């Protein structure tokens, strides 16, 4: 997405723009499936823009992250275009990311029906299901439509076989580097590191050659927040580790987990990482990279076109993107950040809201998001679509799609939000050197196991 900023919890997303001219995902089957884990809701997928005329005049309210600026303009655009096409009016509620989840849960507890659709980060899918927050769309979205989503996009909105939202965008973190700074440091500008060991060695060379100019080799979103957990998941995957085992028990304090955190600590202690990284989120890392103050970063897609916009960037046409490093037998690993939009159980306008979700998956919506915000599509065929290729002026769509093959999901089980708070606190402590990686992860695992046990008895 154009601007993902994990604050206290997770991903932030920006605005919505569209040009209506046909539809992306279609199916000849408009009936509701009755097989699988989902339930029969009575809702029908109508193949947008084939919307029931009786829905005209209804108003739906959507809750999602609003980062201001472009988001406000694009929200207004989507309201106007969608209403013209369907006769369904749209009311947007834009709040900071951390407030989305809290507001949804507050409305559920108060039996409010003020919100029809709500942003759903992948880590909320379990809670949206277990708490009966959102409609189970497993048997609403036809199987032929489900098959058209990218696997990473569909799994990001799925919990235990239940599809709890329509995929909104595809996302993982990626590796970006400044080719000009590489060259100035005497490194091959076309040979980015493919392992974290090489990353460390290149970082030391860059720091030695360019540090006196105020340049750091890298910057990271390592504030004590979900953004830090996200980067740890990437490192954990690179070293062959996993967050939970097949039985659902935490296992991140394994040798692979310790190695991953040890590398993060080593990088920070090496003096090659901008010290401000311990207070940065992804947006602040992006700002430093665009200013030419750091040579490498891990960040979400959507960095372009900003990085090549002279009004916002000092590194126009100097940067490139590729897959994040791996280690040993692991070629690459990157935390996923895909999100969806969920239909709330309390909605009084479910059919009208579903029409918007169908629109969310359409080519006009997805193409304009890609053109305007660098937001990557959720539909597999769009990655080879001529219109998307034409819009891919930085020629990065292929490498972004490649990274999706090595995506690593965070757990989306109920209670993850509190577990992540425990983990990122311990990660932060270890990177600062207040604890060894092993001590920090052991403490986190003990606390998380206790939290899971307590939740199971409530």
UniProtKB/TrEMBL annotation:
<dbReference type="InterPro" id="IPR006059">
    <property type="entry name" value="SBP"/>
</dbReference>
<dbReference type="InterPro" id="IPR050490">
    <property type="entry name" value="Bact_solute-bd_prot1"/>
</dbReference>
<protein>
    <submittedName>
        <fullName>Sugar ABC transporter substrate-binding protein</fullName>
    </submittedName>
</protein>
<dbReference type="Pfam" id="PF01547">
    <property type="entry name" value="SBP_bac_1"/>
</dbReference>
């Amino acid at each position: 997405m154009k601007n993902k900023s994990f604050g206290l919890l997770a991903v932030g997303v920006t605005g919505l723009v569209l040009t209506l001219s046909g539809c992306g995902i279609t199916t000849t089957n408009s009936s509701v499936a009755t097989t699988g884990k989902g339930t029969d809701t009575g809702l029908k997928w109508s193949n947008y823009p084939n919307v029931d005329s009786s829905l005209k005049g209804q108003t739906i309210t959507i809750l999602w992250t609003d980062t201001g600026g472009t988001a406000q303009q694009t929200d207004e655009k989507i309201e106007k275009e969608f209403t013209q096409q369907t006769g369904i009016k749209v009311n947007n509620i834009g709040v900071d990311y951390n407030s989305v989840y809290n507001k949804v849960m507050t409305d559920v507890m108060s039996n409010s029906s003020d919100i029809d659709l709500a942003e759903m980060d992948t880590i909320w899918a379990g809670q949206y299901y277990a708490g009966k927050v959102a409609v189970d769309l497993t048997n609403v979205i036809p199987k032929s439509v489900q098959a058209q989503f990218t696997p990473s996009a569909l799994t990001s909105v799925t919990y235990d076989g239940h599809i709890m939202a329509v995929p909104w965008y595809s996302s993982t973190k990626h590796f970006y580097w400044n080719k000009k700074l590489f060259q100035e440091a005497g490194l091959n500008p076309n040979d980015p590191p493919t392992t974290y060991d090489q990353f460390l060695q290149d970082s030391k060379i860059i720091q030695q050659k360019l540090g006196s100019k105020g340049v750091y080799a890298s910057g990271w979103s390592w504030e004590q927040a979900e953004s830090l957990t996200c980067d740890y998941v990437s490192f954990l995957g690179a070293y062959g580790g996993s967050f939970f085992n097949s039985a659902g028990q935490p296992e991140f304090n394994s040798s692979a987990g310790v190695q991953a955190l040890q590398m993060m600590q080593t990088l920070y202690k090496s003096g090659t990482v901008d010290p401000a990284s311990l207070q940065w989120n992804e947006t602040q890392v992006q700002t430093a990279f665009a200013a030419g103050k750091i040579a490498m970063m891990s960040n979400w897609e959507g960095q372009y076109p900003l990085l090549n916009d002279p009004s916002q960037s000092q590194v126009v046409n100097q940067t490139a993107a590729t897959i994040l490093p791996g280690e040993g037998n692991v070629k690459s690993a990157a935390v996923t950040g895909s999100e969806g939009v969920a239909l709330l159980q309390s909605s009084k306008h479910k059919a009208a809201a579903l029409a918007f979700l169908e629109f969310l998956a359409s080519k006009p919506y997805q193409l304009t998001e890609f053109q305007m915000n660098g937001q990557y599509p959720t539909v597999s065929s769009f990655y080879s679509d001529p219109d998307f290729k034409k819009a891919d002026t930085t020629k990065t769509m292929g490498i972004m799609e490649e990274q999706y093959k090595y995506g690593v999901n965070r757990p989306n089980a109920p209670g993850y939000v509190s577990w992540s708070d425990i983990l990122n606190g311990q990660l932060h402590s270890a990177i600062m050197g207040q604890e060894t990686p092993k001590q920090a992860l052991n403490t986190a695992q003990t606390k998380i196991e206790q939290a899971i046990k307590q939740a199971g008895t409530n």
